[in-house]
Amino acid sequence: MKFLLRTCRHEGQKRRRATAVVEFAVVLPLLMTMLLGIIEFGYVFMIRQTLQHAAREGVRIAVLQTSVNPYANVTARISEAMAPTGLSTYTVNMTHATAGDPVETVVLTVPYDDVSLVGGYFGFSGGSLTGSASMRKEGT
Question: How far apart are the first and last CA of the chain?
Answer without folding.
Answer: 100
